[in-house]
What does this fold into?
Amino acid sequence: MNSKWLEQNTFHYSDFKDLKRLVEEKNKKNLKISLCLPTLNEEKTIAKEIIIMKSELMTRYPLLDEIVVVDSGSTDRTRKFAREFGADVYKADDIFPDLEKFRGKGENLWKAIYITQGDIIVYLDADIKNIHHRFAYGLIGPLLLFENIKFAKAFYDRPISIGRNKIRPTGGGRVTELVIRPLFSLFFPELTQLIQPLSGEYAGYREIFEQIPFPIGYGVETSMNIDIYKKWGLDVMAQVDLDRRIHSNQDTKALGRMSFVIMKTFINRKEKMGLIQLNEEMFDEMIQYNLVDDRYEPETLKLQGHERPPMIEIPEYRKKFGISDKRILKPV
Amino acid sequence: MEEYLKNLPDVVETIKSLKDLIITNIVLIGQIPAPTFKEKRRAKVFMERLAEFQVDECTTDGYRNPIGIIRGKSSGVKPPIFVVAHLDTFYEFYDRDLIFNYRIRKNSITGPGILDNSVGVAVMASLPVIVKELDLHFESDIVLAGTIQSIGKGNLRGVRHLLKTWPTPIRGGICLEGVELGRLNYYSDGMIRGEIECSISEEKGVMHKFTPNAILILNEVINEILNLRLSQRPRSRIVIGKMSGGANHGKIAYDGILGFEIRSDSYKMVKSIYSDIKDIVEGISHENEVELNLKTISNLRAARLKFNHPLVKSASSVLERLDIKPVSKSTESALSIFLSRKIPTLTLGITHGENYYMENATMEIEPMFKGIAQVIGVLKAIDSGVCDEQQMA
It folds into this structure.
């Protein structure tokens, strides 16, 4: 196991706070950088994220070239606010309208590869209450300053929100510690060095994102970690401590559903890679129970685990970006 | 100066072009809770922002008031001009990991403490960029100070220390408050804020034939205070502002606290009324055999600029040029500390808002740009010398 990775490829956002230097590197390499915010009913935080990123990383330091919101069909004013504050806003369903429609974060991330222009794409969740531009430049930094790094992932000390305006710390990362870390320990011990493999904020070069499949739901981070690791190795990856991230807590049942999808994605990946063999098909229903009066009633959620193919296989994409042959990033 | 007054509407437009940056500062600074005595986290963010804007000097004084300095052309020759905004907010809930969640709309921002005084601090933090964008150059150094320990029991300790220990004379000052745009405060009343605490030990309560009730005792104190004859000249008044006590509906209250404020044009009169209240407290304590304690929370001496002081006149012209109607009232804030040190100073409000002291305090974005332009106008006026000749009242 390459246990040096943790030491060598783990950074703190403050390592990259010289924004002038980052802009110089970006210009020297003639790169464009896109920020993508996948949304679903995020009217409480979306304006704040856009305005801070625009002010600090577009106006003051031209690090970002565009801010793109890909929305899953919000019923609140997310799209309106995002437009008012200057982001390019798309409804996920309007991108590749002829394809079957799915709803999920992974779907939005995948479609963002098509509609963004950047050589580097930064993905940030849109519900970050303590948003700060470090969330973007901290992830962009290693990509610009280290030739071998093509994908950077965030980790945090994560307090959890408890009310409308009050926030206090609790454990957080339960799915990571109870599901994903044990699985990584069993099958991909090197990946246990990722402090928070499920964090929703990451950035990478287009050549990376366009060549990996995207599960449409919760499994997207798990599959992304495994796919990048298997395809290019651990050394193209980095992780950055972004300090604190304050988000909304989820109840145990929701975390259960998340765990279900992650486990399914994980096992599917293993099987596709030929690393394990299942003797029978897995079920695709998550069954949970509620106590109604004095009876236990099952609540079933069907999670089919759809997955989008690598974007580079989509003809429209290849046409838009003038790709004649598959671009394959050589392992470093 | 006349020329500058003429150009003020253009200044508003330039400031508007920095809207994103100013709102960013409001969010980044305002979301950090800073109840009095716990301003450290907010002070750090304020300093970080000043450092990011490459202000000429960024430091803290001996009392940990964070300070940034925009160097003037005659730095060291002309005394500095101070801009201050208190860092602490009324909102007392605090946890090391708490942040407020500010919500931005097209023309408003909502969140606890935004009006008192996150917007004031954030505008001050934005001044280095605004000054640069407007291509302004001052003769004096502009000292930007976020003062700590201002509200309530803080008793303006931060600003008191700042001015007491500042090594040079000070040319003039501006105190920034979030609201209301149009306020032009140039005088402050004498003031004492006090608390009367009534406590009855449960054991002692049993010994009484008629168990005293802390709330009723405080009610007697209020009645006696209301019986005091207050002078018309100097104008004086007592505000009964706060009361709390008791445990639940069905139990006699064994404790209670009454908060009040005495104000007058004359600090001598304030002290005289305070002495009367002390007599009332001692009398009721003796008669009812209960423990009643009176303590001073904060105090201020009365101080003022003359109405026709050039600083007041110039500031009025600036406000009027921006179509802002000036409103003058007494204010009990950092202003009085400046004025009592004979430093010509004004308090200005930045914007309009509502729900001042609630979790959903809301500021309007659009009026803020005029609010900032008035600050720039008044800074220019002070720098042009309006405070240099005139003596204070």
